[in-house]
Structure to design on (267 residues):
C-alpha cells in the first residue's frame, strides 16, 4: 500500500483594490494561488484605491478617479458610495497616450489598452473599475492566479480573524502579506488558525529602460509594460514562482464549498 503524499501548501493574498497599481501589487498576485480582492471594507481617502502615477516629460503625474461619497455604505465596492465622474477615462487615456507615445511597446498595447479603458467607462463603481483593469493587466503579464472577491465569502470576525478565516475558506494555509501590516496584524491569531504568515519584500527591484528622466519605481505597472513589453515579467520577482515551504504543525485546511463564481487588504 503506497504512502499518501503530504498535502500541497496553498498561498493566499488579500488586498484592497487599487487603481492601475504598481508592479509590487502584481508580484503579490503572481506569488499566490488565490488572490482575494478585499473591497467590502471602508474606502480610505488619499489612498491608492482611486489614483496612481505615470511618468511624463514634466515629471510624475497623478491620475485620479474622481469619486464622492454617496448615501448609505462607504465600502469600496458600494455603488451608492462611489459616484464616478466617467469622463475621467478619456482624460486618463489621453495622458497615458501622450506620455508613452514614444515607449517601445506603446503601439503593441495601445489598441487593447484603450479598449480596456473604454469598458471601464461603463462600470458603475470604483471596485469594478479597479478589478477590470487588474484582470486585464494580469493577462498581459501572464499571471493566471485565481482572483475572487471577499464579498462572495462567508468569513467574518475581527480584522485579523477575518483574514485568517478567509484563508481557511479559500483553502489556503499560507498568508502572504504586505510588509506594512507587520505593525498591526496579530500573528498569534494566524497561528491559532493554522495559517503560516509570510511577508512580501519589495526591495531590490531592478531598473528598466524608462522614459522621462530619473528612474522611478513608484508608478503604475503600465510604465513597465509599455517600456519592456513581453519582457516586463522578467523585471518582477515573481518571474520565478517561489518554492512552496513545508510548514510543520499546521492544522488541516478545509476547502470551501462554493457555488460557481459570478463573472486588499494592506500594501
Amino acid at each position: 500500500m503506497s504512502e499518501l503524499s503530504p498535502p500541497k501548501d496553498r498561498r493566499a493574498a488579500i488586498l484592497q483594490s487599487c487603481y492601475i497599481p504598481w508592479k509590487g501589487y502584481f508580484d503579490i498576485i503572481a506569488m499566490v494561488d488565490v488572490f482575494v480582492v478585499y473591497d467590502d471594507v471602508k474606502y480610505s481617502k488619499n489612498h491608492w484605491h482611486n489614483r496612481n502615477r505615470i511618468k511624463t516629460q514634466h515629471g510624475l503625474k497623478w491620475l485620479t478617479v474622481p469619486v464622492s461619497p454617496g448615501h448609505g455604505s462607504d465600502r469600496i465596492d458600494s455603488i451608492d458610495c462611489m459616484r464616478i465622474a466617467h469622463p475621467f477615462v478619456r482624460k486618463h487615456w489621453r495622458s497615458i497616450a501622450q506620455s508613452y507615445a514614444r515607449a517601445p511597446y506603446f503601439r503593441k498595447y495601445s489598441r487593447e489598452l484603450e479598449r480596456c479603458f473604454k469598458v471601464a467607462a461603463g462600470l458603475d463603481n470604483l471596485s469594478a473599475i479597479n478589478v477590470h483593469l487588474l484582470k486585464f493587466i494580469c493577462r498581459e503579464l501572464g499571471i493566471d492566479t485565481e482572483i475572487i472577491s471577499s464579498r462572495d465569502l462567508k468569513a467574518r470576525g475581527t480584522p485579523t480573524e477575518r483574514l485568517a478565516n478567509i484563508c481557511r475558506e479559500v483553502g489556503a494555509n499560507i498568508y502572504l502579506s504586505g510588509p506594512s501590516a507587520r505593525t498591526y496584524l496579530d500573528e498569534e491569531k494566524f497561528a491559532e488558525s493554522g495559517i503560516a504568515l509570510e511577508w512580501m519584500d519589495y526591495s531590490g527591484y531592478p531598473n528598466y529602460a524608462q522614459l522621462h528622466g530619473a528612474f522611478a519605481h513608484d508608478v503604475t505597472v503600465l510604465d513597465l509594460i509599455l517600456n519592456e513589453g513581453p519582457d516586463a515579467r522578467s523585471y518582477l520577482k515573481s518571474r520565478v514562482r517561489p518554492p512552496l515551504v513545508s510548514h510543520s504543525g499546521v492544522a488541516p485546511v478545509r476547502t470551501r464549498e462554493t457555488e460557481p463564481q459570478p463573472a486588499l487588504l494592506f500594501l
User: Anything to note?
Assistant: The longest helix spans residues 126-141. The chain is about 30% helix and 15% strand. The beta strands are 11-15, 34-37, 51-56, 59-64, 67-68, 83-84, 146-149, 174-177, 196-199. Confidence is low (pLDDT under 50) at residues 242-267.
